[in-house]
Amino acid sequence: MTLTLRNIAKTFPGGTRALLPTDLDIAEGEIVSLLGPSGCGKTTLLRIIAGLETADAGASIRFKDDDMTHQPVERRKVGMVFQSYALFPNMSVRGNIGYGLKMQRLPRAAIDARVDEVIALCRLEPYAGRTITALSGGQRQRVALARAFAPRPRLLLLDEPLSALDAALRGTLRDELAALLRQFGITAIFVTHDQDEAMAIADRVAVMSQGRVAQIGTPEALYRAPETAFVARFVGNSMPLGGKIDGGTLHLPGGDLTLNATATGKAAFVRAEDVKITADGPLTARVETVTFLGTHYRIALSGATDAPLFCLHQGLTAPKPGETVRVTIAPHAILTLEPEKAAA
Amino acid sequence: MRIGKALQLAVTLLAAAFLLVPTIQSVLAGLTVNYFQGLKSGLTLKWVIEVWALYSGSIFLSLGIALACLVMTLLIGVPAAYAMARNPGRLTRALEEFISLPLAIPGLALALALLQLYGSYKGFRLSWTFILVGHVLYTLPFMVRAVMSVLAAIDLKTLEEGAASLGAGPARRFVDIVIPNALPGILAGALTVVTLSIGEFNLTWMLHTPYLKTLPVGLADSYASMRLEIASAYTLIFFVMIVPLLLAMQWASARAQRITR
To answer: Is residue A106 part of a domain?
Structure first.
C-alpha cells in the first residue's frame, strides 16, 4: 500500500469528535473519494493527511516506508487543491504554477520547462501570463490543479474541487478532472458531498457518516450492495419502504411483496428506477404527482407505503394524478439492511 | 427648485471661501514684500529664502524623524497586524484597543508620561530618538489598523495553507504571500504615518529641546517670534510639503478600500 492510515481520530477543543479512529489503505495510482454529508469528518480526514490539522495522539500516517505522522505540511510533498483554490492573487498563472518548484530550489530552466509541461497538460496556454483575477471559475480550478501537480507530489489531495463552480460547468469539469487525474497517473484523494462526482472520478469511494467510514468500495459495489441503510440512502438515493418484514415477505399498506431471502427484523429499501408500474403488480397505489423529465417521468405514489414512493417511469405516456395503479418491485431490487438508529 | 439649487451653490461657495480665503491670504503674505502695504509693495521670495536659512534644520529633522518613524512602524506594525489577523479572538481585540490607546489620550499627557519615565536619562532625553519614540507610539495604531483591514479582507489562512502545501516555510510565506497581498494596506498606513509624523505638534512640543525643533514646532516658534511675512512663508513651505502627502494618502487609502470591499 502506498498510503497507510492507522487510528486517525480528531477531537476538537471543546470535545467535539469530528473523526472517530479510522484506518484507510490506498494503493499506488489509486483515486479514492471521501464521500459524505457536511460534518461527517471527510474534510478533517483530508486535512490531517495533508498535515494542515493534527490528529489525536496514537495516529500513524505512512507513505510507503516514510512515517509522515509528525512532518509539517511543507515537508510532506503532498499537492493540495483547495475548495476556494487559494491561488495567490499577487502572482500570475505561471507564477502560481511555478511556486512549488521554486520552493524546491530547482534551477530556473528546470522550473520553466516543468511549468510549460504542466500548462500544456492542463491546456492553460492562452492564460499563462494572466493574473488570477482575470480567470473564470473553471480556469482557476485548472490552475489550482496544475499548481498542486507541478512539483510532482507523491499524493494529490482535493477538497471539494468542483463545489465553487456553477451547476452547468460542474458536469463538464467533472469529466475533465477525472480524465486529467488518470492522465497524471497520480495517487489522489478527493473529498466531495456529491455522489455523482465521487462515482464519476473515483476508483474507490469511502462513504463517511458521523466521523467514521461507513463503507469503502468501488462505486458499483456501493451502489449494488450497500452494507448500511445510510450508504443505501446516500449512494443512489434508496427509499426506505417501511412496513414490516416477516420471514420472506414484506407487509406494506398497499399489499405484500416477496423477498429473496428471509430478513425478519430488517428494513427494506428500494431505488426509484426499480419501482415499476405494471398491470398485475402486487401493490396498489394512487398517483399523486407526475413530473416529465425528458427521458422518463418521475411519479409520486401514495398508499403503497407509509411515506410517498417515487417511481421512474419510462414510456410515451404516464398515468394521470388521481388514478390508481398496480406496482411491482422485483425481489432482487429490494435491499434488506439493518434499520438505522433513530438518532441518525 | 432653481432657488434651492442657487442656495445650495451659494452655501457651498461660502464654505469653500471660508477655508480658501485665509489660505490664499496666508500664502500671499509669505510672498509680499510688506504685508501691511499689501500686494502693491511687490512679490518676493526673500521671506521663503530667509525661512530656509533659519529653519532648514527643522525641516530635515522632521523628514528624518518621519522616515525613522515609518521604518519603526513597519517593523513593529506589519508583523503585529499579521499576528493579530492570524489569531482573532478576545485577546487580539484587547491588544488592538491597547495599541489604539494613544489616539484617545491627548498628546500632551502622553508626552508628560514619557518625560516622567525617561526624562532623567539625559542622553536619551536630549536625543532626537526621544521624539521618535513619541511619534511611533502615536502613529503605530494607524499602521496596524490599515494593514489589519486589508488582511481581514483576504482569506489569508487558506492562502498560507496553499503556500505551505507547496513547500513554503513560515518565513517564506510571510515574504511571498503575506507582504505582497497586504501591500495596499501597508502603503496606505505608510503614507498616514509619514503625514502624521511630519504634522505632529502636541506631543513634539512637549518633548522637543531648543536644539531639536521639528517642522510644526518651528512653525509655532516663528509665529511667536518672527515677523508675519516669515511666519507666512513658513506656512507656505509646510503646505508644499504636506499637501502632496495628503493627496497620496487619499489615493492609497481609496485603493486599499477597493480591496477591502
So the answer is: yes
**What pLDDT, on a 0 to 100 scale, did the predictor assign at position A341?**
62
Over residues A140-183, the pLDDT tens digits come to: 999 999 999 999 999 999 999 888 888 878 888 888 888 888 88
Domain identity same for A99 and A210: yes
Minimum distance, in Å, between the CA of residue B181 and any CA atom of chain A: 6
User: Hey, where are the domains in chain B?
Assistant: 57-224+240-260
Average pLDDT over residues B1-19: 88
Please check whether residues A106 and A250 belong to one and the same domain: no
A-facing residues of B in 27-66 (CB < 8 A) are: none
pLDDT in tens, A95-114: 999 999 999 999 999 999 99
Name the CATH superfamily for B57-224+240-260. MetI-like (1.10.3720.10)
Asked if pLDDT for residue B143 goes beyond 90, the answer is yes
Q: What pLDDT is attached to residue A290? A: 92
Instruction: Give A-chain residues touching B159 at CB under 8 angstroms.
Output: 86, 88
- Output the domain CATH number for residue A33: 3.40.50.300
Q: Identity (one letter) of the amino acid at A294?
A: G
Average pLDDT over residues A36-52: 92
A198-252 pLDDT, tens digit each:
998 999 999 999 999 999 999 999 998 899 989 998 888 889 888 888 888 888 8
| CB-CB neighbors (< 8 A) of B162 in chain A | 80, 82, 86-88, 147
Same domain for A243 and A184: no
Q: How does DSSP classify residue B242?
A: H
Residues of A in contact with B171 (CB under 8 A): none
Identify the domain containing residue A51 by its residue range.
Answer: 3-234
**Out of B158, B168, B180, whose CB is closest to A86?**
B158
Residue A73 lies in a domain: yes
Residues 160-199 of B with CB under 8 A from A: 161-169, 172, 176-177, 180-181, 183
The chain A residue lying nearest B161, using CA atoms, is A52
Which percentage of chain B shows pLDDT scores above 90?
Answer: 42
Report the domain count for chain A: 2
Residue A185 belongs to a domain: yes
